[in-house]
Amino acid sequence: MNASQRRVVVSAGATASALSTIPRRRCNLDNWDPVLTDGLAASREVILVDYAGVGSSSGAPSGSVAETARQIIALTEALGLEQIDLLGFSLGGFVTQEIALVRPRLIRRLVLAGTGPEGAPGMHAWRADIESHARATVNDADDLLYIFFAHPETSQALGREFLGRIFRRTEDRDAPTTTAVRDAQYDAIVEWGIPDHAALQRLTGIRMPTLILQGDDDLMIPTRASHLMAGLIPDACIRVYPDSAHASLFQYPAEAAKDINEFLD
């Protein structure tokens, strides 16, 4: 490893396999929904990770999905983890797919949430209104609600509950992400989304059982991309949550934890 990456073990399950979680863009450890992580940790050890250059991790942020995947693999080797279950959300789902392809023996089961495949149609950057909120110098509550949750009030209300949960703790919080992180991760996202039919075919090489979670109207990564992944990954199943967008697993954290635990069990 060329950087010190921060990881936090939420809880240790007595018999279940370890689950490592790979975060979204501009995410630090405090951006995970505690209802989701506590629900997962009730059944298994859960390891949350800060990317290099994010939060308390040293090093420079990566502008490449492939490089980030290598960093996460190096972290698992440093921790002596021979086989894990892996959950990737958003950008973390890109990284998780790459790990599954270049180090398949590492992963027992795979969970992909709010994400999409490399080279798929509609994946090259974001639409203008989403980009203006996502690339703000500081993402405030209004930005997060706009880009992560569906716009009907039912979804927005659950989004505000999520924000209340992640900001409830005020002490010993991870450092906010920087504009360098914003720009490097945006470069990685744009590169991943360049239309490429051959890159899509790589998904057929993901052979471990895979659960895909998505909202029915994702404004950042089109929901149809999740259906495409489900069709190309040989042993995949998909769960689409209603009246939700990019952060469906934070809009329905208890349900998502239940679905993930049942799949991993």
From TrEMBL:
InterPro entries: AB_hydrolase_1, AB_hydrolase_fold, AB_hydrolase_sf. One of its GO terms (molecular function) is hydrolase activity. Keywords: Hydrolase. The keyword Transferase does not apply. Residues 28-251 form the AB hydrolase-1 domain. PANTHER family: MONOACYLGLYCEROL LIPASE, MONOACYLGLYCEROL LIPASE ABHD6. This is Alpha/beta hydrolase. It comes from Actinoallomurus liliacearum. The lineage of its organism: Bacteria, Bacillati, Actinomycetota, Actinomycetes, Streptosporangiales.
